[in-house]
Amino acid sequence: MDAVEIFYSFDDQNYVMMRNAWLQDHVPVQVGLMGACPDGKGFNVTFEHFKVKHLPDQRRLEWLKKN
Prior knowledge:
Oligomer: single chain
Low-confidence stretches: none
Number of strands: 2
Mean pLDDT: 81
Strand order of the largest sheet: 1-2
Structural class: alpha+beta
Strand content: 15-25%
Helix content: 10-25%
């Protein structure tokens, strides 16, 4: 099963995994950044050094060769 690991950091030194989101196998996804404030006047946010990193395992590599 495919998954997305989401990490955050307040200091760009120590990263904490916030979520491990499991995805349906062999289904394309779109990823991006978002900030939300459900209550109050909102907040300022800065996204830096955003990257998406593909970490293929053997099962995924075989699927990519076929598709």
